[in-house]
Design a protein that fits this description.
single chain, about 190 residues, mainly alpha, globular
Length: about 190
């Protein structure tokens, strides 16, 4: 008899309905891919284990609160949660370089003031707001790839894993997103500069 695999969407519904085994099946089905993704980013087994557990704690809380919107994309959703937790980990554990003052070296020689003037900050904020409006007008698939690449600093490999499309499709969507942005900018003669 053939081994029929129950779709993720049905397992999610079963878990929400109270079947704890359904979640165990989902975790077992995807754990190597999710753990591998996490480990590839943090390169530390203990940290990877912690983030993996935190990922599924978030998954459980979301499923239990009935705020998960099933669109047949369980794995990409979980990968996005894991990715966000990895980013949180790196933000919390940002290591600052240690500099010691010597006769040849002064800490003031590497310190610079890159702060924008108030006027430049206002211009930069306006440019960012204008750009956000333009991005919102892109088709959903192009906008998704552009935001992941430019604002979440994800690789095209990560984007393809999360969106469930090939790397070439992700690259194509990014290319079309940039072309469409250029067309709108040229059409309306928008100047995005500070």
């Amino acid at each position: 008899m053939a081994n029929i695999q129950i779709p993720d969407a049905l397992l999610v519904q079963d878990y929400v309905a109270g079947n704890e085994e359904a979640l165990a099946t989902l975790i077992k089905r995807h754990e190597s891919k999710i753990y591998g993704f996490i480990y590839s980013k943090v390169s530390d087994r203990d940290v990877a284990n912690d983030i993996f557990q935190d990922t599924f704690i978030k998954v459980i809380k979301t499923l239990k609160s009935n705020s998960y919107n099933e669109e047949g994309k369980f794995l990409p959703w979980v990968m996005r949660i894991a990715h966000n937790l990895i980013i949180d980990y790196f933000r919390k554990n940002k290591k600052m370089p240690l500099y010691r003052e010597t006769e040849e070296f002064s800490v003031f020689s590497i310190m610079t003031d890159d702060a924008l003037t108030i006027e430049n900050q206002l211009i930069a904020n306006q440019v960012e707001m204008d750009l956000q409006k333009l991005i919102e007008e892109l088709p959903e698939d192009q906008k998704e790839v552009l935001v992941m690449r430019m604002y979440k600093d994800m690789s095209f490999k990560e984007i393809s894993e999360i969106t469930g499309v090939s790397i070439n499709t992700s690259l194509g969507r990014m290319r079309y997103a940039l072309m469409n942005l250029r067309k709108v900018i040229d059409k309306h003669q928008i100047i995005l500069t500070n």
